[in-house]
Structure formats: C-alpha cells, structure tokens
Amino acid sequence: MIGVRLIAALASVVSLSAAVLSPERDVAYGTDALQRLDIGTPDTKNFPVVIFVHGGSLTGGDKADADYGKVCDAFPAAGVGCVNVNYRLLPGQPWPAPADDVAAAIAWVHANIASRGGDPKQLFLLGHSSGAMLVALVGSDARFLARHKLTTDVLRGVMPMGSIMWDDDLRQAIEKNGRERVDAVFARDPRGRAFGSLENYESQWPINYVRTGLPAYHFLIAESEQVNPPILRTNQKFVDDSRARGNRAELTVINGRTHYSNIRLLHQPGDQVFATVLAFVKGIQ
Fold first, then answer.
1. Are 157 and 226 in contact (CB under 8 A)?
2. CA–CA separation, 95 vs 97, rounded Å?
3. For residues 64 and 4, what is the distance between their CA atoms, to the nearest angstrom?
4. For residues 50 and 81, is the Cβ–Cβ distance under 8 A?
5. How far, in Å, CA of 243 to CA of 142, rounded?
6. Three-state DSSP class for 125?
7. Of 220, 218, 205, 279, which is closest to residue 249 (Cα–Cα)?
8. In this structure, what DSSP letter does residue 114 have?
9. Which burial class, exposed, middle or buried, applies to 248 when counting CB atoms under 10 A from its CB (0-12, 13-18, 19+)?
10. 247: three-class secondary structure by DSSP
11. Of 75, 77, 87, 219, which has the fewest beta carbons less than 10 angstroms from its beta carbon?
C-alpha cells in the first residue's frame, strides 16, 4: 500500500502547477455519437496519461455529467494527461459494446497521444462504479485489446474505483436454486436481453481473467461501500489471486468517503483520492 508520506508529498506537488493546454472536447474515436472523448494535457512532453471511464450501471452516465465532468480537471496541472471517455450503453447496444469501446478508446489514445506530447508507453486506466468493472475487465481479458492488435502490456496500471469483481448474489442464487432455474429467470430480466445469455453476463466479471502478466492494479474503495455490495472482499480476492501469479496489486480504503464522494471530490485541491491516484501513476516506472 502506498505510504501516507508519499501521498502527502505528491499532494503538495500538485500546487506546483504545470502549464496546461486548453482541453479538447468530443474527439471521435469511433463512428457512433457516444464514441467520444475529452482530452486534458499539460504543456510538457512525454507525460503519463490517465484514461477515465465513467459509471452508470452500463446503462447511463456521461463524461460531462455532475458526477464525472470534473474528473480530469486536476491532472494536467500535476503533469499528467487525462482522457475522459464516453461509450455505447446497454440496452441500446448489447454487451460487450461498452467494453469494446473502452478498448477502442485505449487504442485511439495509444495511437494519437504522442502528437499531443503524451507518452503512449505510460497509459493508465481509472474507472468508477461500472466503469471500474470495465477498466478491470479490459485490463485483464486480453481479447478486447487484441481486436486492435494490442496487448494489455500497453497499460502501465489499472485503478478500479468502487466495483465488485463478480456478482456474489448471482453465485448464491445458482447455488441455492440451480443454474437452469436462474437461467430462465435471467432471460426475462432486462439484463438478460442486454447480455443475451447468463453466460455472457458472467463473462463480464474481471475475476475470471486473473493471470500472469497483468498490469499493476490499485483498487480504490470508499469506507462506506466495503461490505454491501462486497466490494472489499471481491477486490481483495482479485489482489490476492493476482499477487499469487507474480503481478503487482494493492488496494486502498479511503476513510470517510462514500461511493460518490470518492469521485466527486477528485478534482479538489489536496484530495486524498487524487493524491493516491497520482502516487500510483508517478510510482510506476
């Protein structure tokens, strides 16, 4: 876990602001109206880049809304580029459209950030809520980036903030009622229509893809969201399994925070979550 002194030191460094360029808005990385991203950059060279993915249960949310519109604001002044990504949503587009779009956005940044001064070898993912699930998934399931002729090695680190790594309620329901019965109920659920099958729904969960050779992971958990749903337990399992395979993985519980205050305060001076993210980015060479 990152030391308190390092976090405090990096938080103080943020006040030493780098020059910042005007942000770019609604840059297309695909042809759909939702395949758009915003880019904020410092006026420097070879800076690392955080790619942020919003939450909204895969059915809502937007990079410009009240929860997520300011996420990138503090990064450029700290010498870090930040890309805020929109993606196609369920049920308008079936699964795995959201994950496919996250991978497509990563590929776009990898191909285009050098022309803006960024280092394509220093890409980091940060996601909140269902966006945390998406970054954890795309960072571990190699198939998504492989569609763009990339591997997960293009990612230096992944920071999921506030998501379970598997659906524990579903697992318990299957154990109690049997898979066939749960499958029939799921088919009538809106999620069934969006995912197409129970198998597809289960395939979204990142715990299925822990393997040797993952990028570094750092899970960020608000104090109030540890137990229900079981974010701490499922994140800790991912961390333990990843470490057992020789990967770097850790988690931080942010005291005094809720699911939403964790992300809504990220842009504010001296914010603990921002300092933790910055320490992770700056600490990986």
1. no
2. 5
3. 32
4. yes
5. 18
6. strand
7. 218
8. G
9. middle
10. coil
11. 77
Nearest to 83 by CA among 112, 58, 57, 61: 112
Chunked in runs of 10, what are the mean pLDDT values of the chain (285 residues)?
Answer: 45 62 96 98 97 98 97 97 98 97 98 98 98 98 98 98 97 96 93 93 97 98 97 98 98 97 96 97 88
Q: Give the CA distances from residue 179 to residues 34, 172, 199, 226, 230, in Å, rounded to whole numbers and listed in that order.
A: 35, 10, 11, 28, 22
Residues in the chain: 285
SS3 label, residue 160: strand
Residue 233 near residue 221, CB atoms below 8 Å:
no
The values of phi and psi at residue 2, to 5°, are -65, 135
Q: What is the 3-state secondary structure (H, E, C) of 197-230?
A: CHHHHHHCCHHHHCCCCCCEEEEEEEHHHCCCCC
pTM, to two decimals: 0.94
Instruction: Quote the tokens at residue 28.
Output: 């297309």
Tokens linked to 136? 């954890």
Q: Is the dihedral of CA 34, 40, 44, 50 positive or negative?
A: negative
- Residue 84 structure tokens: 């805020």
